[in-house]
Model the fold of this input.
Amino acid sequence: MKSRQELFDTLSTILVEEFEIDASEITAEANLYEDLDLDSIDAVDLVVRLRTITGKKIEPDAFKQVRTINDVVNEMEKLIA
Done:
């Protein structure tokens, strides 16, 4: 099982490579929409990418509650637990 730090690092890599977000902006408290300027289409793309990592689908209702990087890591942890 991946550690929390490994999940954070993987998520950071995706955000930098796929969404061209500056790595310095990616913190646990960063808001996906307000701080990182993701939109709803980006969020869907992110869910698809996370599915390839976890091998499981994040439920749309669960992802609607996600606001920060930390929230995403929490959802990833639940999926791989």
In short: The radius of gyration is 11 Å. The chain has a mean pLDDT of 90. The helical segments are 4-19, 40-54, 60-64, 69-80. The chain has one domain: 4-80.
